[in-house]
Each structure stands twice: as structure tokens, then as C-alpha cells.
Design a protein that fits this description.
mainly alpha; binds iron/sulfur cluster; Endonuclease Iii, domain 2; 7 helices; Endonuclease III, domain 1; single chain
Length: about 130
């Protein structure tokens, strides 16, 4: 992957991506060997400041419990489905806050639903 990147940018600074529209940035990153949707979106979001919404395991789990995506849906599908519904200016913050929520409260086993700030809108707790 690094070899391929170095062919396009020997500095490996990704500067050539900064001028590209976001769909082209994502297409470029996804074409790199070993780079999947989450990694591509994280690079686009954190390094290039693009308004994309990476879905990791915490976000996928919480989104499934909240009823935002089907339980068992892939992270890739969830990313495509969720992104258009999240205002661009909120994507970074929501990504970070959901990961923090998934680590502290909506953990994989035995989520701490009592006192969870999302309980009023959560499908999981109402089932
Ligand atoms: S209510 Fe429970 S399942 Fe729903 S988001 Fe909160 S911790 Fe997760």
C-alpha cells in the first residue's frame, strides 16, 4: 500500500488528495491495497478534514441497538446508509462521541442501559 502511495506522492504526505473532491478521495483510498471503507473514511475525516462518517465496531453496535441500521448489517453498508442522514458539520463529533459511548456505556456485553443518555430513543431497551 505504501509502495503504491509512494508512486503517486513520494513524500507520502497525501497532499495531492487535498485538492480532490471527497468522492474522488474516497475512491482513491479505497483502491489502495488493504484499505477498506472504515480506514478510507478515517483518513478522509481525520487527515483531510472531509465530512465523512466512518463506522467502526462500536458505532455499528450502537446503531444496531438504536435501530438506525439492521442488526447484522455490515459496517460498510451502515456507513453508506447513515452518512446522508448526519449533517456534515456533526459527523466528526458524532463519530467520536459514539465511540466514547460504546467504550463507556453501550459496551458489547451487558450495556449499561440504566442511566444511558440515549435510552429514550433506543430500540434495544424497549424490546
Ligand atoms: S439504552 Fe442501552 S443499548 Fe441503548 S444505546 Fe444506551 S446503553 Fe446502548
Amino acid at each position: 500500500m505504501v509502495r503504491r502511495l509512494a508512486e503517486d506522492d513520494p513524500t507520502l504526505c497525501l497532499d495531492f488528495l487535498r485538492e480532490m473532491p471527497t468522492p474522488d478521495v474516497m475512491a482513491y483510498l479505497l483502491a489502495l491495497p488493504g484499505v477498506g471503507p472504515k480506514t478510507a473514511a478515517c483518513v478522509a475525516l481525520f487527515e483531510l478534514g472531509r465530512p465523512v462518517f466512518p463506522v467502526d465496531t462500536h458505532i455499528l453496535r450502537i446503531a444496531g441497538r438504536l435501530g438506525w441500521v439492521e442488526v447484522g448489517e455490515s459496517a460498510e453498508k451502515a456507513q453508506q446508509r447513515l452518512e446522508p442522514f448526519i449533517p456534515a458539520r456533526l459527523r466528526l463529533e458524532l463519530h467520536l462521541n459514539l465511540i466514547a459511548h460504546g467504550r463507556a456505556t453501550c459496551v458489547a456485553r451487558s450495556p449499561k442501559c440504566e442511566g444511558c443518555c440515549l435510552s429514550a430513543i433506543c430500540d434495544f431497551i424497549h424490546k
